[in-house]
Specification:
The complex is a heterodimer of chains A (about 300) and B (about 450). Helices cover about 25% and strands about 10% of the residues of chain A. By secondary structure, chain A is of the alpha+beta class. Chain A has 2 domains: about 5-25 and about 255-285; about 40-255, Alpha-Beta Plaits, CATH 3.30.70. In chain A, the strands form 4 sheets. Chain A has a 3-stranded mixed beta sheet with strand order 8-1-9. Chain A has a two-stranded antiparallel sheet with strand order 2-3. A two-stranded antiparallel ribbon of chain A has the order 4-5. In chain A, strand 2 (about 90-95) and strand 3 form a beta hairpin. Chain B has about 450 residues and is an all-alpha fold. Chain B folds into 2 domains: about 70-405, Formate dehydrogenase/DMSO reductase fold, CATH 1.20.1630; about 415-450. Chain B is built from 17 helices and no strands. Chain B has helices spanning about 1-5, 25-30, 35-45, 45-70, 70-75, 85-90, 100-110, 115-140, 150, 160-185, 190-200, 200-220, 240-265, 270-305, 315-340, 345-370, 385-405. In chain B, helix 8 (about 115-140) crosses helix 13. Chain B is globular and about 70 Å long. The model of chain B is unreliable at about 415-430 and about 445-450 (pLDDT under 50). The chains are: A alpha+beta (about 300), B mainly alpha (about 450). Chains A and B meet through helix 3, helix 4, strand 6 and helix 7 of A and helix 4, helix 7, helix 10, helix 12 and helix 14 of B. Chain A: InterPro entries: 4Fe4S_Fe-S-bd, 4Fe4S_Fe_S_CS, FDH_Electron_Transfer_Unit, Formate_DH_Fe-S_su.
Amino acid sequence: MKRRNFLKACLIGGTTIAMGKTNKGWASGSFEGYPESMGVLVDTTRCIGCRSCEAACNKEQKLPEPDTSFDDKSVFEEPRRPTAKAYTVVNQYEKEKPGGPVYRKVQCNHCNEPACLTSCFVNAYTKTKEGAVIYNSKVCVGCRNCMIACPFNVPGYDYESVTNPVIKKCILCYDTRLKVGKPPACVDICPQEALTFGHRADLIKIAHERIRSNPDRYLDHVYGEKEVGGTSWLYLSGTEFDKIGFDPSLSNDPIISNVKDFLGMVPMVLSIWPALFSGIHLLSKHESGGEGHDTESKEEEP
Amino acid sequence: MKNMIKHGLAVVDSPYDESGKKRTVVQKLLLGLSPSQYLLQAFRNPFNWILAAIFAIGIPILLGRFVFGLAWATSGSNDYPWGLFLGFGLFAMVPLSSSGFQLGTACEIFGRHDLEPIERLALLNGLLGYFFAVVYLLADLGQPWRLPYPMVVSFGPAAVLFLVAWHVATYLSVQVAEVSTAFFEWIGFPAGKRGVRRITLGLTVSGIILSTLHQGALGALFTYAPGKVHPLWYSSSFQWLHFFVSSLPGGLCMVITVSTIAYKFMGWRTDRRFKEALDRCTVTLAKGACMGIATYITIKLIGIAHDNKWSYLDSGWGQWFMLEIIVGFMLPLVLMTYGVHTRKMGVIRLGAFATVFGVVLNRVNTAIITFNWKLPEREIPPWREVVISLTIFAIYIVVYRFILYRLPILYKWRQQEEEVTVTEAVTAPAAGHREASPVAVASYSKMTKLD
């Protein structure tokens, strides 16, 4: 009965392995974010472009002195992006419009299913249960694939460093504040209450409530609620989102869903190819069996 | 070298020199010349002067990149994190190196031994292309000394790049083993060669697996950037197939290209077997490349139709895309088809050059030129980045030439294999039958005018 037991064990083991990874009956599950995830709601209709969030971030994260002071309004001439020296920037849009200009703060949006995390081959990124996307610069190789993958063009790289260039980006003040339940520095300092810190689920409700009670002030869309699988930073706006620097073409699927076609094909190739090509090799051998290497084929090329 | 051979120099193609003495490794390294003769022929070669000029400027700048950092050497842009080193060096070199697994498959799996004269060149082309793709990668990585991290320190197995890293590493080892047979012959270590021959089938099959997956994976890397890569170069479902399929003609045409260059400028190093087989092999490779190109153009069209991207063709980017497809793929398809049917080798080779150009252009387009197409300004790589890319490519050429000059890649190493064979009555070898001749005493002075 030994053999039967062995086969039984094989069968059970194989089934367990096959079933182990599947959590739903139909496909790999999608991750909707941690239930207790925190977030920030940005109301762009309230932002006045004072840049105090930039200053607070700079101080909290001990970033280098900026080229010009944080009171300098000339930086608004060109739209900027987060870099290794500034984890958040405020941009000015719709300068000539009546009721303008409109300001928008840019920083890491802390996606539920971050593209940076799924593209990192040393697993440097972590999505914490508080919703922050943090990273371990100790293992960063500097391939910059996360910068390619990020749909919001957020991560910056300190190219200037020779011995230890790593990715730098907003971490929602995870180490110093979020871990102990405090809001990030930028939220704390905002004089206009343009930034609201709270549980992501609550913020979505608040956002929709604001839209409902003030339909003329807001567009009926909460940016970040569904985009790329949802983000921890949510935006309300009175102007079209594409006019204030958002990419309107982003799908509601997380970035990794684009890659799943390929990732699913990998184990198939790994397991099918050996048999397939060894089989072809067996089939293509001549009956004489004498067709070894280094012997001239007797057939002429047609 | 040509002149020296004219003056009666015997080319090193067997373990013994003309007087029947066993050659030392140093003699083999010096191509059977005395050191002064060797230097003389090196100085006489005008190509070496060009290389020397490139290295004089390029090597200090290449070293400078590691001393002063990436910002000094490259554009260091946050919006274009991958510049020339990866866009050209990695993404374009790797598809041109798919030749190793294809010729390996043809010879070892399908038993097409008629392609053997060119098999080793294809294997070497694969090995060097991969190796220098890794060199480019080391120049580009922020912390190159951490390159082994995905293998030993920290795993991100869900990432496509993880697969690329592992596959390039393992495939490099496989290719080293495949090319090592030539090295073992040259160094005189038949046991090693026999050992590798024993596992050739396994090596070849793993070569197919690794190549399929990571040629595809290089394409799949861009599926992380929907919206950044221009839609005409992007396809969520087929990106990996586009890259994989276009790498097949890319690799075959690279072998045609390299063999042409070797035939033209290294005629003394090729033996009769290679010269006689070259046209026939080229036709076979071109046939294969034509199939690959036809398939590629088809699946490109399917990709456009699948996501309904026809409207993009009516834009500046669309015209650029059509230029790439027409000049880089359709034109070579026509040229090579015509060349194969009329047996016009020049036309085939022109088509092969165009294919290499097309594959390189496709990769550079995907990684750099059309990347971030929505952003207002395009990225022009700064001069140091260009110089470093050129320098690494020049090193690649030098290493390539160094190996081709010495190892039995383009010629057959003439020695008696120490194999136990059934003794037969010695008959005159049949025409076309390659029998190892005992001792090399041939002087190439009475060879054809191609020398």
